[in-house]
Structure formats: C-alpha cells, structure tokens
Design a protein that fits this description.
Elements: H1 15-18, H2 25-37, E1 46-51, H3 55-64, E2 68-73, E3 98-101, H4 105-119
Parallel strand pairs: 1-2, 2-3
C-alpha cells in the first residue's frame, strides 16, 4: 500500500509456475511495486502478508525500506520477523521496520491451509 492507502502491487507464490526459488509472494509484490513506483526504496509503504516472512523475504523487505509489515500468522518453521529469528531488530538490519503481527490470524490460517490442501 502506498502512503495514500492505494494498492500499488500484489504478489502470489509463483515458484512452481516460474521455476524460480525466489518467487515468493513478498518478493513478487516488492518487484512489482518497485517497477510501478520506479524506485527500489518503498519508503512509507505498507506490505500485507498472510504468513510471517522467511529469511529471504524478510531480507528483501528490509532492503526495500518498506515502512510497515503487517502479517497474519506466525511461522514456527522459518519465520524471520519475530518467531524463529528476528531480522528487523538484528544488527544486520540497516532499516527500522514497523511490524504488526497476528492481524486476522484465524482468517489467514484458514486461507493458508486451504491453499496448501489444494497443492497436496
């Protein structure tokens, strides 16, 4: 979301379709937003995701300078924002990221379970 609350970009997991291990939904959305905004610095933007980002996505979010990350469900396997590791608050982070977790948690959990059930 842009500072004026307009939707800038969206992403979905495209790893299988694109044969690209980096095509997580967060990375796809960040790439699209960067192209649309004509900058890699997504200052004052908010990124909304269903599942707590993995290490790769957390790194991309930090590097993109997104102002706020909102996520629904903690990821106890690879969560890299608050659950398993905390990249935003670590010494390797060069950006102050605002994090809001647990938003619409049960709805997000149900959506994720449904999505994974279709792929198994």
């Amino acid at each position: 979301m842009a500072p004026d609350n307009t939707l800038v970009a969206e992403g979905e997991n495209r790893r299988e379709r694109d044969h690209d291990p980096t095509a997580h939904a967060e990375v796809v959305a960040l790439r699209s937003a960067g192209q649309l905004c004509q900058t890699w610095k997504l200052l004052n933007h908010t990124l909304y995701v269903t599942l707590e980002p993995c290490p790769m996505c957390a790194g991309a979010i930090i590097l993109s300078r997104v102002k706020t990350l909102v996520y629904g469900v903690d990821d106890f396997k690879t969560g890299s924002i608050r659950t398993v590791i905390n990249l935003p608050d670590s010494s390797c982070s060069n950006h102050q990221l605002i994090v809001i977790g647990g938003i619409l948690e049960s709805t997000c959990r149900q959506q994720l379970q449904s999505w994974f059930a279709k792929r198994r």
